[in-house]
Records
---
Amino acid sequence: MRTLDDLLAEGVAGRRVLVRADLNVPLRDGVITDDGRIRAVLPTLRALTEAGAKVVVCSHLGRPKGAPDPKYSLRPVAERLQQSLPGQVSFATDTVGESASAAVAALNNGDLVLLENLRFNPGETSKDEAERSAFAAQLAAFADVYVDDAFGAVHRKHASVYDVPKLLPHYAGGLVLREVEVLRRLTGDPERPYVVVLGGAKVSDKLGVISNLLPRVDKLLIGGGMCFTLLAASGHDVGDSLLESDQIDTCKQLLAEASEKLVLPVDVVVARDISEDAETQVVEAAGGIQAGWKGLDIGPRTVELFAEHLRQARTVFWNGPMGVFEVAPFAAGTRAVAEAVSAVNGLSVVGGGDSAAAVRTLGLDEAAFGHISTGGGASLEYLEGKTLPGLAALED
């Protein structure tokens, strides 16, 4: 796999470099609420612009339906890039149309243009290879070389990720390389004890990664909404908590095969509704949750149980919050687990997505963690053992 350093050694002055970035940041009323993904790609953009490249950046944002939608515009991201980079940053109001063509043609050495949201074009995500390839060809026409620094998108077989590298000399950006290096440490020969913490809503989303990780880990701690299907499979009442009834038999089999490694909550915080002023109770998981109440966070005894396993760990991977952390009464479990992960005496990896958002939302020190991934879905699929199309394209 050729790298950004290889490209810089070849020389990029005057060359047009198409950078696939992951600028899929959360917006509220057009204002960026978390710029972590922007900051993550800045080193690559600075290295290229300072070396005199003409940089064309493309990214998706949100899930528009293959047509322009103002609420998913990347314009606020272009404004943030201009604040963060020393050179000239312009914004194209389309992806491969007149505005993009004119902006790319006008680039001087060291300048950068951000194209409008890739997903405004149906060809970006199309399952029709001809349509996807045609859109990729239009993107590739803007550049001499291609750099993928969008780790959060490498598990997608999309035009800008999978098809463009077939058309241009291609290189892995620094962010992608760092992500892969860390994940290889988790799947290779990690220092032990190796503890994984999984949360989030649905256990069905995590069954593949659980099955692949169980032979490798020493302990797998389960919280979040997904724990209630496993608790139900253990014979406990879960009240009105999130439950995937069709997964109970699968979870029973999982518990039978790996009960010594799986650690479930021993108590949970419950409420009748999700609100800032919700009436909450702590109940023992084995005692069950009454009808009308739902589990929304792990309880204090579970926090201490999880923290004890994390104190002993030398390698930790955490993906998924322990509760509805965005609402204050249900944030304590996620905060406590995040703090325990940050204190690990060894490699601590936050697996992107809601976990990374929780670190920032709760005001925790990002520098205290060994690595915060920019791609939750990509991280999980890598750990699940799947081939990621974007990485495969770079290795070709």
---
Amino acid sequence: MNKVLLGLLLGALLGAIDGATAWFTPAVRAQLAGIIIGSTVKGLIAGVAAGIFARKVNSVPLGILFGVAVGFVLAFLVAYMQHGYYFEIILPGSIVGMIVGYATQKYGAAPATTPATR
């Protein structure tokens, strides 16, 4: 599967799971649907970024580091806008980025190249 498409699908799936974990925080259960949608979008963005990075750089450690960095930054922005729950938002967001960064490097297929013709 294409690296960007793999990142997109895996990011969306893991983002939705990340958002669903907000159920464990009783104070935010009323906003659960919005949190799941927002986390899914955050996962989509992280997945596409990790997939594009995986196309350019062929290194699993760098892919993981990039995924963690993107996941951390996106989750930090969300936590900053919420004025709280930093740990509860940043930790799973960074883990989603790490998993997507690893998967796009390890399991994503490189784009097919066509031979040059004369």
---
Amino acid sequence: MSVSRSIFALVTDEDRYYFGQQGKGSDHFGYIEPGTRAVFGKSYAAEPDKLIEELAKDEALQEADTILLTIPNTIGVEYNIHLLSSILEHVAPGLGWR
């Protein structure tokens, strides 16, 4: 099962400015390819410790064999690199992601 999430580790003031007020949505279901169900839509934005705690409770993430991280394409490549690096550095290790 593939799961898509918008996950933002709030580690800088700029992160808090862009994503600090993001509410949590709900899951949406669909298919990436025939026979492969996907879950889309839920967003997370928090300080890394809180984010790890919240993500560990997400049943869809626990069951997924593929996690797709969605990031905005309008903020620029450099900032998107920061967003992904923040997940890799501050969140992934706490969840055992590799």
